[in-house]
Amino acid sequence: MRQPVQELIERYQKNLYAAAFNICKNQMDAEDVVQETFVQYYTTKKEFESEQHIRAWLLRVAINKAKNLTVTFWKKHKCSLEDYMETLTFPDPQSRDLFEEVMKLPEKYRIVIHLFYYEDYSVREIADILKLSESNVKVRLSRGRAMLKDSLKEEWEDDE
Amino acid sequence: MTNKEKYKDAFSALEPRECSFQEVEQMAALQKKTKMKIAAAIVTGCVLLGGTGTAYAMNVGGIQRMVQIWMHGERTDAVLDVTDDGTGYSITWKDENGEEREVSGGGIAYELNGKERPLTAEEYLEEWDSPDVEYLDDGSVWVYYRDQKIDITDKFDKDGICYVQVKDGKDPIYMTIKYQNGWGCDSKKYPDPKELWGVKQ
């Protein structure tokens, strides 16, 4: 199955941006990643099994593109995370703290945490998207949670 | 509040700039043209190695020709034609699933005096006989040349440059590839990234 790009943009733009930002830590790079991901969907002839398949594919492509950006020396946009955070409107100070602490996590924990807490994916689904083993995802999730608990104290529940 | 609710609240602050379908459509068209233009510009720089290039072409009337192209390591029958607007060429072939695929382009060649001119049909065919670099959805990167297929995903250095050699018969073709920024090739030595991209390596 295929779905019109217009619909996918409306539905998943924000999710892809959040995932890409989680890795790039940069607004403009993340926006580029989102656009390039939709371009890739538009140009690929790939057929999908379901809407969930499309969503997972889009996220995987966006994550890969964002990772590629972080490993290349060809960094297009330079704007500090701190400067960008000043432009964001958080619902409350705790949300800001949480956002800030997540961004301090090593990337390999950050993206697993994001897919679990933001995208509501299970360990198995995250393993599938990131091409990791389930046990590896569990370890990363556990270490990421422990780090968040350590820094956020009572603002973060023990939910393992 | 659960951790999930807290997390979603925190990340709800992220608001991307609106991405429109028109932008996506334009980018897709631009990428296609840019790829052709870059490849065409590079092919004029390594025309020596293309000198023995396999055009595999046969006139069938007018400019339209039956040609054979290498597609992902497989030799494939295709038709070369002039595009409707007369400014470039199209190549159509059937992919491994029997679906008709078409790529159009033309590109620009640079004369020795620096003057630009459109590629001739022969040069356009030569372009198809040059190596290709493809970035796949799974993050892997491949070099294709005729029946050669090389996984270069892990071959990029810290500066995003990869050096790889393919064979044109017995002769080597030295390729210098910059991650997602094009590539150059030469029959004698690896092209210097500084000369290709004008950046300090």
UniProtKB/TrEMBL annotation, chain A:
Family annotation (Pfam families): Sigma70_r2, Sigma70_r4_2
SUPFAM superfamilies, alphabetized: Sigma2 domain of RNA polymerase sigma factors (SSF88946), Sigma3 and sigma4 domains of RNA polymerase sigma factors (SSF88659)
Domain (RNA polymerase sigma factor 70 region 4 type) ranges: 100-148
Top-level lineage group: Bacteria
Keywords associated with the record: Sigma factor, Transcription, Transcription regulation
Entry keyword Transcription regulation: yes
InterPro entries per UniProt: RNA_pol_sigma-70-like, RNA_pol_sigma-70_dom, RNA_pol_sigma70_r2, RNA_pol_sigma70_r4_t2, RNA_pol_sigma_r2, RNA_pol_sigma_r3/r4-like, WH-like_DNA-bd_sf
RNA polymerase sigma-70 region domain mapped to chain residues: 8-68
UniProt KW Transcription regulation keyword: yes
Alphabetical list of NCBIfam families matching this protein: sigma70-ECF
Family stated for the protein in its record: Belongs to the sigma-70 factor family. ECF subfamily.
Name of the molecule in the record: RNA polymerase sigma factor
